[in-house]
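Input record (one chain):
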Amino acid sequence: MPSDVVRSSPSVTEGVRGADRPRGLRANPWLTLIAVAFGLFMVGLDGSVVSIANPEIGRDLNATTADLQWVTNAYLLALAAALILGGKLGDRFGRRTFYLIGVAGFTAASVAIGLSGSIEGVIAFRAVQGFFGALLMPNTLGMLRAVFPPQKFGMAVGIWAMVSSVSTALGPIVGGLLVEHVNWESVFYINAPIGIIALVFSLIVLPETKNAAAAQEKFDIPGIVVLALGLLAVVFGVVKGETWGWTSGGTLGAIAAGVVLLLLFGWYETRVAHPLLPMRLFRNPTLSIGTVITALNFFVLLGVIFFVMLYLQNVRGFTPVQAGVRTLPLSLASVVASPLGAALTQKFGPRLTMPLGMALQAAACFVMLGWSADSSYALMWPPFIALGLGVGMVMSSSSDAIVGNAPVRDGGVAGGLQATALQVGGALGTSVLVSLISSRVGSTLTGELTSAGVPAAAAEGLREAKDAVSMGVAPVSGQTPDQLKAAIVEGSHQAFMNGVHTAALVSGVLAVIGALLAVAGVRRSPEAVRH
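The corresponding structure, as predicted from the sequence alone:
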């Protein structure tokens, strides 16, 4: 009997007698793909709508800036710490089971956030939401890996990546509409109907898949604890680096402690009979490099989207909805790129699509170096399209490289590894690029204000407004004389653009490094072993 069994699905039938093959809805892998897409869409949408809702949450609940940071960070920390555990639980006890638990818990936590009535409640239930998201996400890929034959898995991953990219990109538009026309709570309540549909449809069509041999294994409790603590420490250090300073003792100490714990985890996992994350997976260079490229991909995507939205709303003056509409080319491009990338990966392997996608992202970032505070939209949409094409292509090819190169029995763990790389990369992208923008603004603000015509004494006094300028906000009030106001706005926006150019340059260079790494290290692997 094979070590990975699929209950109620004929898609993986090596060693399964024809009489045991099921019939009906649960025999269709494409229905499995539709079912997991609902849950994936809910998580992806939630990840990006919250940034739009944060200002209104702050006003309504009298939250500080630090409180609002924890609305995001509590979710991110819980998600990052539990993703590999979520995949392992699915592999051992049933991926369908833990996907459904994840959907139900995520939906309930979303409703609880809207009903909480306090910033402490929002933060606490965001952490709960992150934990259930960690049960949900890795098992989507794990189920696809189990039910699709190798020749169709690449296309399935392409559609999976398209859903993920589109839901993330649509977040600002959906969030803007809900916050403007309903309230901030509706940003979370929207998950209720999506979650209910996902649950009902999934109960009807999803097959149960698991690694039957894992049920006899001893569960790796020490590995779970060490990995969770290591990821928590690294992500905590990263997200606090912006406010504490990247060279502060707290930031360096947290990141260093996390790295030590992760190294300890890797050492320990090679010495236990039944590891949480089998280190043998990393013997495959395509899987290893795919993990790194996944992190780089979301470093660039989430970091760039963050400063682009600041630019569009605070510098150009667009509303959240108007800003979201202007980034639609990115969403539409990712819709095209994900299945296209999957088809190209299936035909030529990830050695073509991974570097091509990273090169497109690099080109997008380098074009942004030509943006100014009053650039026309004609200079904006081409890099949006290039970024969307690149992200969608890398998303599908790197997912295929990671999950497609892992044995089926480790499908959930591989999905957790991919999702962990994605989340850590996104956290790094946002935190590092915001810090770079802030540093560059701090070093150029006084000079830019003086060049714009602000008196030297006033320009020096405005250095205290560095944090506001780093968000694209000019430090002016209704009492500021018109001529001085115009000069402050011009100088502040130019200082912000200096920061944007630095962030875009760093992102572009990292994308080039990722492309070169993929060219040098990725090989077109033979069909992955399915047992």
